[in-house]
Amino acid sequence: MQEKTLDISPELQQIIQSELAWYYRIIPKSESKESFSFFVDSSMDLNFIEEELSALLGKRVIFEECSEDIIQRSLGKYYRNTTVENDKITFDSDVDFVDRLIQEANVLGSSDIHVEIFDKAARIRIRIDGNLIHRFTIEKEDYPELVNKIKIKANLDISEKRLPQDGRIEYEKFDIRVSILPTLHGEKIVLRILGNDASSIDIEKIGFSEKEKKTIKRVFENQMELF
User: Fold this and answer.
1) Mean pLDDT, residues 204-213
2) pLDDT confidence of 59, banded at 50, 70, 90?
């Protein structure tokens, strides 16, 4: 007797990337203009993954719980598990993981990416709407290679590991400011995504107080009257 798996169309399969499907243990069920619906492993913390997925996907997320076995078999059927194992990504030197990470964060509207090393492993989080969301876990032995790849892209010294460094990675429509800071377990990296077009800056979102915004607007209006 063939063991049961969930049935999904190729179109629904494209809703979520393989890494995310395995990390959150979800299978797409349906999509509407307002929401995504997923089958989910009943052992998962639904409140936690609902918050993260809603931020990542930009829509409301609805879950239908399934048994762990059905989700496991369905993940194996529809999504390759070559890079993720127990929420950890195996760093493949043949794939430009850094570029893929930056492009993905930019598409998701992230303002910065945090790459941090701890005692047993490293993690990558991206900030969306002010919230830092876990994206990848990196094996500790793979972390130095990842750091070096970022340093090379930012034209920084890969041999310097004790002092802070700052650099920049340029793309066509945005730049990345790279800040590297030594910590107890290794180097911590923050990648900040900066738009190239200053005309797109919204004064309402910069963080000025109401008094400061009124002053800036008044100065700008006075300058305009001179032309």
Assistant:
1) 59
2) confident
The one-letter amino acid code at 207 reads G
Q: Are residues 74 and 98 in the same domain?
A: no
State how far the Cα of 86 lies from the Cα of 114, in Å rounded to an integer.
21
60 and 111 in a single domain? The answer is no
Query: What total of structural domains would you count in the chain?
Result: 2
Q: Which residues pair with 181 in a beta bridge?
A: 188
CB 138 within 8 A of CB 124: yes
Q: Is residue 111 part of a domain?
A: yes
Q: Is 183 helix (H, G, I), strand (E, B) or coil?
A: coil
Do residues 147 and 124 touch, judged by C-beta distance below 8 A?
no
Q: What is the pTM of this model?
A: 0.54
Question: What span, in angstroms and rounded, lies between the C-alpha atoms of 100 and 153?
Answer: 13
Query: Among residues 137, 136, 8, which one has the least CA distance to residue 66?
Result: 8
Closest CA relative to residue 22, chosen from 75, 89, 90, 97: 75
Q: Are 3 and 36 in contact (CB under 8 A)?
A: no
Residue located via tokens 């290679």:
145
CB-based contacts of 167-170 (< 8 A; 24+ apart in sequence): 169/102
Strand-pair category, 26-31 with 131-139? unpaired
Q: Tell me how far apart the alpha carbons of residues 203 and 78 are, in angstroms, rounded to a whole number.
A: 45
Q: Tell me which residue range forms the domain holding 69.
A: 10-81
Per-residue pLDDT reduced to its tens digit, 122-160: 888 888 877 778 888 888 888 999 999 999 999 999 999
What is the per-residue pLDDT for 127? 86
